[in-house]
Backbone:
């Protein structure tokens, strides 16, 4: 079960924030295009940072606590982290706005 | 020579703030809900990051040379809070920008 340590943390984040969408009506998962346009640049920027940092030895992952699947040189969990955490943040932000936007950008 | 992750953890939040103030100008920083979201994200970063970096058997390990060595609370490298701020703020900027642009397009 140790190999699922990191994945389990991410799963917990998804499960804990799911009621924000389902019960409190955050409407984040239900706006997939807007969500994708938000996530794609975030994943790109942070995956590149992560990859460079890992290459330069800033940090590394305990091999016995990740599932062992790697994509672009990073553990799959690390890439999922860059999806899960932003989604949790947007869910929180949307719930606080009661689903209504009042854009006043200049 | 300052530690590389320490520099990145300061530069990334600064870059994200500059992106908003100089280019995007979505008004995100004037929204109470942004600051509350940030506070909630920080509250969740403590148990999540705390577990990932926990003492004894951390899931993520950090180079002593790349970090300042400051770890708080528990074993979380303080640099991670700069990383988290940049991640959450960039996300909310991009999310909000689309609403602002849609509003603008409608006139």
Residues:
């Amino acid at each position: 079960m140790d190999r699922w340590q990191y994945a389990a943390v991410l799963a917990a984040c998804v499960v804990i924030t799911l009621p924000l969408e389902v019960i409190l009506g955050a409407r984040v998962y239900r706006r997939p295009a807007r969500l994708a346009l938000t996530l794609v640049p975030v994943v790109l920027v942070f995956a590149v940072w992560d990859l460079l940092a890992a290459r330069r030895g800033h940090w590394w992952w305990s091999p016995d606590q990740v599932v062992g699947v790697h994509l672009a040189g990073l553990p799959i969990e690390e890439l999922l982290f860059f999806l899960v955490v932003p989604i949790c943040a947007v869910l929180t932000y949307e719930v606080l706005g009661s689903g209504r936007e009042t854009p006043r950008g200049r | 020579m300052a530690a590389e992750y320490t520099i990145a953890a300061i530069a990334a939040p600064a870059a994200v703030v500059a992106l908003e103030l100089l280019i995007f100008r979505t008004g995100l920083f004037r929204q109470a809900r942004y600051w509350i979201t940030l506070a909630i994200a920080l509250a969740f970063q403590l148990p999540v990051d705390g577990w990932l970096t926990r003492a004894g058997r951390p899931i993520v390990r950090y180079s002593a040379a790349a970090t300042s060595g400051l770890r708080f609370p528990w074993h979380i490298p303080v640099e991670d809070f700069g990383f988290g701020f940049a991640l959450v703020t960039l996300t909310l900027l991009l999310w909000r920008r689309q609403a602002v642009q849609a509003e603008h397009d409608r006139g």
